[in-house]
């Protein structure tokens, strides 16, 4: 005698989850992966604020004092001393609705240092240097991390063991310690060489992430199909696997850029980074720390721009992470939820009538 089957209770989908999924699928219907990523990124308010803030800071820094021999619109440079006016106090005043005496920029909006150099021009030059160092460190670290992680994750075996032991060796020492040693050697040669030295030791974390992604991708069907078609290993990595791992690479490179700004600032502040006559935001804080009690504005402006750059890059990285990660769901508004529920009810009613 056969045993009667127990009734199976199927879990009905939660109406809220169904509505959210319907809204998500409707929004991305007919769009490519790139279009979906762009749409998600530009809907992230924090990422947009960070992108606009970073763009404005870069535009102000490069256009005000010029770059690559192209003169800027600001009348002072960052190295020529001048006559100290009004004790070097800032000439910029806040508008009346902020409690000031009326908005005025003046000749030295950020003030002057003890020998009459314009602080605004020096802050802009320091911002240029910090942005340039950030770009070089992040690009170099991304390239090294991508190459090491790709080779390790794809070939595995002895190559994987050797590269990962090298990665573990770099991770054993704090980056600030390695950076201090390299900065002492390369800091006097200029910001570019310091950035190259720091980028050469900033790749291990990204390499591990890329390796994990490649270990997963190498088991996918499209990689097997490419092998059967006769594609070489390097072509498979370049054409098929790296594009699929680009989300992890881009997001973590952006977050690495924020860490690069703080690393360069910390090393320059401690005296192991950029050396005079070159100017960076970290060296300015180091130079003006003795004036913090008497003229704090010399200390405030470099610190403010460091915070703006670091936060902006972090917000951009957060937006890119949400855009590339399909598991990140944007909570629909109450209006969209009601509209989706109404459409779902109408479709179920029309289906029952038919």
From TrEMBL:
NAD keyword on record: no
Signal peptide: none
Pfam families associated with the record: BPD_transp_1, OppC_N
Transmembrane segments: 48-74, 133-154, 166-186, 192-210, 245-272, 298-320
GO CC aspect terms: plasma membrane
Domain ABC transmembrane type-1: 127-317
Keywords in alphabetical order: Cell inner membrane, Cell membrane, Membrane, Peptide transport, Protein transport, Transmembrane, Transmembrane helix, Transport
Annotated localization: Cell inner membrane; Cell membrane
Topology class, membrane: Multi-pass membrane protein
GO biological processes: peptide transport; protein transport; transmembrane transport
Family recorded in the similarity comment: Belongs to the binding-protein-dependent transport system permease family. OppBC subfamily.
The name this protein goes by in its record: Oligopeptide transport system permease protein OppC
Organism: Nocardioides scoriae
């Amino acid at each position: 005698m056969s045993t009667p089957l127990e009734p199976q209770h199927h879990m009905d989908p939660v109406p809220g989850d169904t509505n959210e999924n319907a809204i998500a699928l409707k929004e991305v219907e007919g769009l490519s992966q790139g279009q979906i990523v762009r749409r998600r990124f530009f809907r992230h308010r924090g990422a947009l604020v960070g992108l606009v803030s970073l763009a404005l800071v870069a535009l102000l820094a490069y256009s005000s004092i010029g770059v690559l021999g192209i003169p800027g619109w600001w009348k002072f440079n960052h190295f020529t001393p001048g006559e100290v006016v009004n004790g070097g106090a800032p000439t910029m005043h806040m508008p009346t609705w902020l409690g000031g005496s009326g908005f005025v920029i003046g000749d030295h909006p950020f003030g002057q240092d003890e020998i009459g150099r314009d602080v605004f021009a020096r802050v802009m030059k320091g911002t240029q240097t910090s942005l340039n160092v950030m770009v070089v460190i992040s690009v170099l670290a991304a390239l090294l991390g991508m190459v090491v992680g790709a080779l390790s994750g794809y070939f595995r075996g002895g190559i994987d063991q050797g590269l990962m032991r090298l990665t573990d060796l770099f991770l054993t020492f704090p980056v600030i310690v390695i950076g201090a040693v390299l900065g002492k050697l390369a800091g006097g040669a200029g910001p570019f060489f310091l950035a190259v030295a720091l980028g050469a030791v900033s790749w291990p974390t990204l390499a591990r992430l890329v390796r994990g992604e490649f270990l997963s991708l190498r088991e996918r069907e499209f990689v097997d199909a490419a092998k059967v078609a006769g594609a070489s290993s390097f072509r498979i990595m370049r054409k098929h696997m790296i594009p699929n791992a680009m989300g992890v690479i881009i997001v973590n490179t952006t977050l690495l850029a924020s860490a690069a700004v703080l690393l360069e600032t910390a090393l320059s502040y401690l005296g192991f980074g950029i050396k005079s006559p070159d100017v960076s935001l970290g060296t300015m804080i180091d130079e003006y720390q003795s004036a913090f009690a008497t003229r704090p504005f010399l200390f405030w402006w470099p610190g403010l721009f460091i915070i703006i750059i670091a936060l902006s890059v972090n917000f951009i990285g957060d937006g890119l992470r949400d855009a590339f990660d399909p598991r990140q769901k944007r909570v629909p508004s109450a209006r969209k939820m009601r509209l989706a529920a109404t459409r779902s009810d109408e479709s179920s009613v029309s289906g029952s009538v038919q």
